[in-house]
């Protein structure tokens, strides 16, 4: 009996699904920064709002570089391109390949004003994706009021958050402001790492922060 030949057809592998796009504007940037802060590896984050040069953020040294003055910080850019790269061991964060022969003249400025500006503009006044409904917050370290570009209303909210653990709605009542205004400040203070939190029972984040995607061009 003749041997019967069987052909096996192997289907080509399906391409991996691309990661979901980051939310537009400063919301995606805030989520990326929050995710990177929780990583054990020190990272450089690149943020490029539409119409501007890239901003480089050193999460290890808590400093940033950006050709654009913060007075020209865009409130609602259509897009913010996000990139990341790991900082090599003992590498000066903002060094180029010729760092030894040509050290940079500008090592970076304090990151807190940038985090404040991003945090108060991200999420459209809604709760940040890593915060949870019903949680109570309290300020544990005062920000530098002279360094941050904040209004008197925002200063009242910051002071109200230092009075004791409270939900955002209660903080808004203390400061005599709308809940949305208080939420923007709480988002920013959380992004800056200046809040202590008491978790609400059975609370869960609306959405976990996605890992940052992309890389810094030219790196």
From TrEMBL:
Superkingdom of the source species: Bacteria
Pro residues compositional bias, start-end: 12-24
Annotated stretches, region: Disordered: 1-27
Record-given protein name: Uncharacterized protein
């Amino acid at each position: 009996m003749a041997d019967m030949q069987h052909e096996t057809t192997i289907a080509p592998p399906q391409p991996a699904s691309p990661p979901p796009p980051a939310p537009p504007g400063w919301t995606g940037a805030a989520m990326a920064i929050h995710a990177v802060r929780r990583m054990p590896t020190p990272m450089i984050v690149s943020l490029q709002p539409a119409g501007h040069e890239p901003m480089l953020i050193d999460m290890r040294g808590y400093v940033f570089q950006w050709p654009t003055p913060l007075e020209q910080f865009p409130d609602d850019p259509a897009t913010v391109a996000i990139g990341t790269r790991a900082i090599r061991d003992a590498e000066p964060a903002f060094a180029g390949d010729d760092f030894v022969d040509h050290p940079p003249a500008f090592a970076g400025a304090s990151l807190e004003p940038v985090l404040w500006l991003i945090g108060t503009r991200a999420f459209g006044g809604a709760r940040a994706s890593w915060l949870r409904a019903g949680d109570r917050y309290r300020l544990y370290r005062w920000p530098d009021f002279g360094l941050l570009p904040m209004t008197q209303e925002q200063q009242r909210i910051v002071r109200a958050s230092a009075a004791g653990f409270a939900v955002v709605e209660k903080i808004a009542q203390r400061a005599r402001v709308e809940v949305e205004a208080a939420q923007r400040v709480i988002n920013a203070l959380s992004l800056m790492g200046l809040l202590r939190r008491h978790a609400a029972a059975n609370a869960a984040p609306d959405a976990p922060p996605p890992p940052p995607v992309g890389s810094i061009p030219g790196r």
